[in-house]
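Components:
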Amino acid sequence: MKKIDKKTLWALVVTLMMALVLAGCGGSGGEEDSQAGQGEEEKFKVAFVYITSAGDAGWTYAHDLGRQYLQDQLPWVDASEIVENVPENPADAEQVITQLAEQGNKVIFTTSFGYMDPTINVAQKYPDVTFVHCSGYKTADNVGAYFGRMYQARYLSGLVAGQATESNIIGYVGAHPIPEVIRGINAFTVGVRAANPDAKVKVVWTNSWFDPTVEKQSAEVLLDAGADVIAQHMDSPAPMQAAEERGKLGVGYNSDMREQAPGAVMTSPMWEWGPYYVETVQAIKDGTFDPTPTAGSLTYWGGLKEGLVKISDYGPMVPEETKQLVEQEKARIVSGEWDVFDGLLKDQNGEVKVAEGQKMTDDEMLAMDWFVEGVEGKITAPKF
Amino acid sequence: MIIRGTRLTIEKRLVPSSSAYLLIPIFSIFMALLVGSIFLYFSGHEPVAVYYKMFKGAFGSRYGITETIVKAIPLTLVGLGVALAFRMQLWNIGGEGQLYMGAFAATWVALTFPEGSVWWVMPAMIALGMLAGGLWALLTAIPKAIWGVNEIITTLMLNYVAILWVDYLVYGPWKDPAGFNFPLTAVFSDAATLPGLFDSRVHAGLFFGIVAAIILYLVVYHTRWGYEIRVTGENPGAARYAGMNTTRNIMLVMLFSGALCGLAGMSEVSGIGHRLQHGLSPGYGYTAIIVAWLSRLNPFAVILVAILFGGLQVGGFIVQTSGIPSSMVYMLQGLLLFFVLGGELLTGYRLNRVPATGEATK
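Structure:
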């Protein structure tokens, strides 16, 4: 080890630093009200496990707003324990969830798909703790599975995008090719084509939930390909900022992204977890919580009707007639008269997947692995 | 460098200071914690309390210790693997990719023979996992040995290829048919699952790490081949002059280095995940490079440093519930590496004070 070639040493240092920076970025924020845990005894402790940091303006931010709402609404709850940036690998996730159970939390919300197996494993060891996992498909005696019918809000935002596009090409930055994302792209496309039958939706995968650099680059690829509206299933506002820089339009996701890109964002499909968290924690406290699946494999799958998903207020560029169209379609969904994936529905190759007059079951929707007509992109191959 | 009329020069030590050999890593750790505590202090936290909580979380309870070991297992195996290559001045940055390839090959065995008996399924998973990791590393050793292609670049690049290859499989052909099209393979059979120890998540991979450390120690310090590796690392010219087959040694060392990383991947899928999935490793392959450096390539020190870093990871999650950002841990790791490499300079070189003669040095 005495004679290390200087160039080699530098190359090694730079490489390692880059690897560490890459691993470390995405971690920020986390200033939490930790004082709530001390001094006040016997509060009902509720914990949250997050995939990114609560400052991401996206998925985790929406969950964290829900957590704050829960804390405000139920004074007997202590919802101060959160763990951020927990990787979706079994080694880390299971450790974090166990630790939260060990620290006396009565309810633990695990808010990313990859926490499913770890949640189930830990739940077996802590029968007195209730676990509620978001976006998976497994339940147990003390594990509930919850999610939202985001596809309904995506459909509405698709109407807005379809009416706005002039090039008839809409770009969509997708995270991972899993049913949740595919369902969203499909619903969005159904909306786009309802407003504008000639429009197409081009999809690019980032293979990540949160990676602002890659998100932005992906949006730029789509803009270069002629897209004049960008939509996203990503956790940062970077794709919206890319659209704004080019003077194009966008549809955000997770939170009202007009804040980050006011010139581009027409609207954003959003989550409203707060009331669900209040209701669930109350039910668990009262002993009335029942994790038995009610919607496909899920304990709870709320939509527009329940107010779990919605679209944000509009940007100034959205015309009045579009707003009226959205209201009208929303009413059809809320009343139960129609849902997004009702037939007639064809796939990318023009093959009929849902016949006229038929509906998809919840399980079919939850396992969706094909694109509807009008989507340009592939599902199986991850983006390289 | 001129400081107030005195000139500081950096001079190579003829013989590395032996006390510095041990003191510098310890001093590096201390400095990293010190600088880290400045950051903590200015972001409004009590540094000592945070470090105490981290330490207590990682080592202060039975559960904390077992979880620390869970993370130390892959760090040890990859750390041993890259340390072997570093010994010969082969900069294998590809531990992460070799880990993924090992996990891939082991998973292939588990998924192809779900009914197989433990007596041959487990050995097959170990053998193929090691072989896949080894061959993945060999891919970079061949161009290195023949044309002198820089292995830092090739091993690093192959990491991404291996990770994307695993992604391709779990998002596509190896998706669990009963898994609602989520990117996970089916769960392994019991025969393909490494047994757990001490009623915790610690698994038999622990023995792999210990046995590998003993074997490596014996090979490197007590065999002719180990001597060749050490000589080649210290002085490649002398090694060639002495008639040692450097080309062959580069390939063999990389093969074994990759095999150990592959074994880490095998034990991770078989012992912890029980299935292959996206994001299998939280960067063990990179952290292990720091582990290898900090342990000065000594196989037994690798185990100890791996436990330290496992604890850092576990403690890092624990302090989060009191409001410490998760990036703190990555920052501490980066600081450790920074000071260890800085300390390296002091082991092999020394600072001299010479009265200024007017001419400045670079």
